[in-house]
C-alpha cells in the first residue's frame, strides 16, 4: 500500500478557461516546476489541446523536455539566455526572457551568428528587484536604441509583487512604472498579470496574462471564495490502528500525550513525500468527509492521527491529506507557507494518476 496522487486534468483546463475569461484576452500557462508538482508532461499537452498556445517555464531544461509535447506553441524561458547553451534555443524553437544588458548583448550576438532576428521577451523590473531591467539599464537603452536591435521582441513583461493583495498600492505603482517604461521602448506586446493579477481589474489586462498557481487550484483571491476548481487529491493508506491509554505518548520526543483512551491510526506518508514537518500538531486529514486530527510529529515516512471518533478507520482505509476536502491553501496555512510550496513539494514516491476527482 502506498500514497496515491490523483490529478484532474479537466479541472486544470477549466481553470485556464476561467482565467482566460476573466482576463478577457490571450492567456498563457505557466508550467514550471513540473507543472507545479502535478506533472508537466500531462498538464501542458492537455492545455495545448484546450487552446493554450503560450507556455512559460523557469529553466531551459524544462523547455527542452516539453518541446516534443507542445508542437507549434511558444515556450518562454523565464531564467533567460545562457550563451553556453545557446544552440538549444534555435534547435527547440524557444524564446528567452531577457532582463539585463549583458544578457541582451549576448543574445544579439547569437542572433547575428544565426543570421536572423530571434524571438525573446523583455523583462522590466518595476519593484520586485529580482530579475528585469533596472532603471539605469532602461535609460541606457533609451539613449542607445541599437541595444535592442536584431531581436524579434514578442512582449515586454513585468512581475507583480503583491497581486494577491488588491489594496496594496504597490500594484498600481508597478503598473505605472511598467507603462512609463513601455512608452519609451519600441512597440511590442505587453504582459502584466500573474494569477492574482488577473483579478485586479481592467487596468491590469494586457496582451498576455501569465497564470501559474491558479491553474492548479490555488486560490488567487485570498480572503474570498476560491474561483478555481480543485485539481489534486493526495491520499495515503492506514497501516495500523492501535488503542492507547490516558498518558501514553505518540511520536518522536513524546510530542503528543493522550488525555483520553485513543485510537491511533498510523498512515504511510511523511515529509519525504513532501508533506511538511511544520504541520505537526496542526494538520487534519479527511475520512469519508469528516476531519481527523494529526497527532505527534510528522516523520519521514509516517503520520499518526486520532481516529477515536471514527470507528470506520481501519487498516487499509485511506485518508485524504490534500484534496477537495483538505485544500492545499489550508495545508499551507498549517505549515506557515503558501499553496505553491505545498504542491511543488509533492514527492516522487507515489504514482500520479490522471482522473476526475
CATH class bucket of the largest domain: Alpha Beta
What is the number of beta strands? 17
Segments where pLDDT lies below 50 for 5+ residues? none
Number of separate structural domains: 2
Q: Could you tell me the radius of gyration in angstroms?
A: 24 Å
Structural class: alpha/beta
Question: Helix content range of the residues, please?
Answer: 25-40%
- Cα-to-Cα separation, first versus last residue: 20 Å
Q: What's the number of helices?
A: 10
Strand content: 15-25%
Word description of this protein:
- The structure is a single chain.
- With 357 residues, the protein is an alpha/beta fold.
- It folds into two domains: 208 residues, TIM Barrel; 123 residues, Lyase, Ornithine Decarboxylase, Chain A, domain 1.
- The protein is 27% helix and 22% strand.
- It has ten helices and 17 strands.
- Strands 1, 9, 12, 13, 14, 15, 16 and 17 form an eight-stranded mixed beta sheet that branches. Strands 2-3-4-5-6-7-8 form a seven-stranded parallel beta sheet.
- Helix 8 links the parallel strand 7 and strand 8.
- Helix 1 crosses helix 3.
- The radius of gyration is 24 Å and the shape is elongated.
Helix and strand topology:
Layout: E1 4-7, H1 9-23, E2 29-30, H2 32-36, H3 40-50, E3 54-57, H4 60-66, E4 74-77, H5 87-91, E5 95-98, H6 101-114, E6 118-123, H7 135-143, E7 151-157, H8 169-183, E8 189-191, E9 232-244, E10 249-250, E11 256-257, E12 262-267, E13 284-287, E14 290-295, E15 303-306, E16 318-322, H9 328-335, H10 339-344, E17 352-354
Parallel strand pairs: 1-17, 2-3, 3-4, 4-5, 5-6, 6-7, 7-8
Antiparallel strand pairs: 1-9, 9-12, 9-16, 10-11, 12-15, 13-14, 14-15
